[in-house]
Description:
Largest interface: A-B, 36 and 36 residues
Number of strands of chain A: 17
Structural class of chain A: alpha/beta
Shape of chain A: globular
Number of domains of chain A: 2
CATH topology of the largest domain in chain A: Spore Coat Polysaccharide Biosynthesis Protein SpsA, Chain A
Order of helices and strands of chain A: EHEHEHEEHEEEHEHHHHEEHEEEEEEH
Largest sheet of chain A: 5 strands, mixed, barrel
CATH class of the largest domain in chain A: Alpha Beta
Oligomer: homodimer
Number of helices of chain A: 11
Distance between the termini of chain A: 38 Å
CATH superfamily of the largest domain in chain A: Spore Coat Polysaccharide Biosynthesis Protein SpsA, Chain A
Helix content of chain A: 25-40%
Mean pLDDT of chain A: 95
Low-confidence stretches of chain A: none
Amino acid sequence: MYVVIMAGGSGTRFWPLSRQKHPKQFLDIIGGKPMLRQTYERISELVPDRNVFVVVGKSHEQETKKILADKKDIHILVEPFGRNTAPCIGLAAMVISQQGNDLPIVILPADHFIAQPDVFRSDIQKAGDLAGKTNCIVTIGIVPVRPETGYGYIERESEKIENGIYRVKSFVEKPDFETAKRYLESGRYFWNAGIFVARPSVLLGEFEKHMPDFYSNLVRLADHIGKEDFKTYLEALYEKAPNISFDYAIMEKTETEVYVVPSACGWSDVGSWYSLYELRATREGDDKGNLLDGSGKFFNCRNCFVMNRGTQWIAMLGLKDVLIVNTDDAILVADLKMHQQVRKITEHLKQSDKDELL
Amino acid sequence: MYVVIMAGGSGTRFWPLSRQKHPKQFLDIIGGKPMLRQTYERISELVPDRNVFVVVGKSHEQETKKILADKKDIHILVEPFGRNTAPCIGLAAMVISQQGNDLPIVILPADHFIAQPDVFRSDIQKAGDLAGKTNCIVTIGIVPVRPETGYGYIERESEKIENGIYRVKSFVEKPDFETAKRYLESGRYFWNAGIFVARPSVLLGEFEKHMPDFYSNLVRLADHIGKEDFKTYLEALYEKAPNISFDYAIMEKTETEVYVVPSACGWSDVGSWYSLYELRATREGDDKGNLLDGSGKFFNCRNCFVMNRGTQWIAMLGLKDVLIVNTDDAILVADLKMHQQVRKITEHLKQSDKDELL
């Protein structure tokens, strides 16, 4: 198999810890290592390093190389601009197909957490086995554990085809709460984690069909892979590439068979400070639900989360549901449940010439 | 007149801004200057600098000299140990009496805030005039504006003696809320701000009567004032001195006539982060009751108070009644109404070898 780790994101939901130059996939916020490094280590038992491709934005190339410095065989593909996941996957599929074989590619976001990597690897292997012997796309469907309204869902057909795998009936958008509850109870819906397995020829066929202009440019690029002028052609490709997700551009339109491997691997996209708190507090929190990462102490607090990466000692007194994030140049103190509004702060920073804090 | 500014305190209620080496009277938290400096400036229109005595603890001598560096004529009396206000006032009275005259002394705590200094000066002058022509002690009684349970009260007799001044009937301890309400409604009770005016001979007479041992040692010290061995005798005096307040040792026992000048001067002892917030938010707060001193911004907050003396920019999101104090080596995030519990933190620091933060 091949693995493509997509590390091109640049979110601000973990501000002030995440910054434009240091987005979530580079943060060491859960699991004790940068998320990108964990994503690589989680999968590295299944594939040799020379089959691992990390796709990353230009401004994050150095950070990526640092995090993977001891893994010289890994390929790092640098995108000249961010164009969401479709161009990223197309590029990786073309580069891999030029290596002369058609082994399945596992496509993984770099910034997800998985509590049970053994289960995950076993499910990925299942998906890889199926993708390797058919012309289909296999997705990993996370078995839902709550009526989550923040994720897209994958609906399966009724009957298993083999080995616990199902044919996919449809991809559905983020539901409202009542719908999410119904999904959860039905047992026929899974969270879409953006993890896909397919052979390069299958993927490129999809791009040819659903993004023909992009595909033509991709073919034009193919001759220059490994050559001096590759960068120039890559820039030309990306300049014309639409900014669109693989789900939207391909998965929702494909006529190819799509399968889903249900996986109860303890997956989370760690989408906000609150979800990070929920993930970690269960294991690391005190008996009042407080979680402290760094130097400080709680006095009469409940359900508070402190991430202290600054130099100060922090005393928390009489607080409930409060998030504190301390860094060298910025501090966030927030209602832990208002995590969705962190973007208000980054928008303010943009508008008020405080770029150094972004 | 003479003025004695008592700057010997060492509270921790403004932790982490106040520290053992930098207690409240040295903080610039209201009025734009250190409180000690404001106390001096407030009274300096009434007396020449050479008549001003600042009594301060050994560990705060340098800080005091720095704050008053441009006022070379002010006397700074350094106490070898803190022994509450009675020894402090006895010492100052003896030193002043040795200057050879018997002008009234105004005794002032260094760490109070007064919103209307003109009113205050006028009332002090009244008290000084009365004290100068009688053998009495004159107190300033703050006209109460709420049923405060945190202060001691001064009860007056019914009839004015002159110029709006009353004879004092009794000094009463901190009341419960119902009693405080009754005090407020009666119009006969004032807050005891610890401000007294009396001639040195009157004060020394009181010490002779109510603290005879201390008085004997004080007399022994008198011969050494201005001499090389003064420090040695001063240490001997303080080693034996009881740790007791002037209110408790003298005012509650005195048989001398005591008068009270009611004063509506906007006084506050600024006893906690919350009272500081209340004092400042009215004038400086935004329309949601938020008060920001330093660099940062509120997003959807109400009644929050941020004192940012660190280097970081602080974002506050969705908070209510939260206090944030940022310094170079410690941060406090607290429920603004739990200000009484700040001492829990300093107690913890003592017990856990974090002396550098005290």
